[in-house]
Specification:
With 87 residues, this protein is α+β, with helices and mostly antiparallel strands. The chain has one domain: Nucleoid-associated protein YbaB-like domain (Ybab, Chain: A), CATH 3.30.1310. Helices cover 57% and strands 20% of the residues. It is built from 2 helices and 3 strands; from the N terminus they run H-E-E-E-H. The chain has a 3-stranded antiparallel beta sheet with strand order 1-2-3. Strand 1 and strand 2 form a beta hairpin. The mean pLDDT is 87.
Length: 87
């Protein structure tokens, strides 16, 4: 792989990283909602005051896991569209 190809790939990766920063996914369960960005950072959590503590804890955990899966799927799709990086 030439140096030019490597620089081109780095540029593509940087562009993808910038896109991921802007991307937001949402997961909801039992009225609890989490919004996560493409860097897998939780930006917002909305709780449901009608749920008990144990129910809220489970809903938050489930929402966080679901949001992470959504970000991972989005990343995998973007990577497959970019092609082989010689990894």
């Amino acid at each position: 792989m030439s140096m030019f190809d490597q620089l081109k790939q780095l540029k593509q990766l940087k562009e993808m990283q910038d896109q991921l920063k802007k991307e937001r996914v949402e997961a909801e369960k039992n009225g609890v909602r989490i919004i996560m960005n493409g860097k897998m950072e939780i930006e917002e959590i909305f709780l449901n005051p009608d749920l008990g503590v144990n129910q809220q804890e489970k809903a938050v955990k489930d929402c966080a896991n679901d949001a992470v899966r959504k970000v991972q799927m989005s990343l995998a799709q973007k990577m497959s569209q970019m092609g082989n990086f010689g990894l």
